[in-house]
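Protein modeling request. Please complete all fields; requests missing the sequence field cannot be processed.
Requester role: graduate student
Desired output: 3D structure, token encoding
Chains: 1
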Amino acid sequence: MSLHRNHVCFLHQTIKTLCTGLLLAGFSITVTVPVSAQKPKQNTIGSDTAIQLKLGRELRPFDEYLVKAMNIRISRYALLHGNREETVQADTVRSTFAGTVTVNNVTEDGQEAVKTVVVRNAETRYQGQNTTIVATGTTIKAFYSDTGYVYTVNDDTLAAAVTADLVGLLRSEGGLKTGVIMNPPKPVRVGDSWHINADAFAATLGSPPKNKKRIVTGKATFKKVDVLHDIPVAVVSMKASVTNAVDSLEGMPVENATIEATLDIAVPIDERYPTVWVASNTHFAATVGKAPQQMRISYTVADEFDFQR
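Delivered output (309 residues):
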């Protein structure tokens, strides 16, 4: 199959699904659990104190919180002519969201299955133009499952384009998957690092390549103890790399498919309380096709979430 400009739209959607799937399947799923009226006590943990970090916590129905989210998607597609690249598409899309959330139902491991969201702001900026995704005051009901996300307003499913914009902003929070990937095997002190669960991380990427061995490496580091929104938190950073992420896209062979991913998360020292802040960045790069008909692809998804109760 020869490559041409019309392949960009198909490849773009496939790669967007791959990167979004990594985020939604657990890599950056955050921790949200109900909180009592009592605030956590002032932090008394010193940097030399070893603690057992729990980075995945269950969520329960009737939890309520305000979420503020930001998502940036940067993509570039270039046809290769020997050593020369001809850019055929390069885009940057920035989206923001704010809304109040009520959790309606959760999965067995405490991840959101159904929630109701009242929109405060939902906007996308593309090519210098701001576009409203969903109007302020709109009540969205979000349904999450292994087969995908469904967003409804007054029992009517939102259009595919609107859903595509919301997927990176209005995610299923909670559950244990982040902890399965990132929890340290023993108590740790500030500055300590440990290997992530590479198999659990790889599982978020879907089926492995048929003709190449996918290699996943990564470490997490206990960066510091801080106070955010008046809550003592542990800040943990993760860096992961994937080689041979995929070996085909849209039926075309892929070379040098790599993923570089980072995650920074702030979780309260007191395990009864939810995540305060999380940010992640996922960069995918690959060469698609066979010489002399090849395309170089670069796709980055960056997001940031702030949770207040």
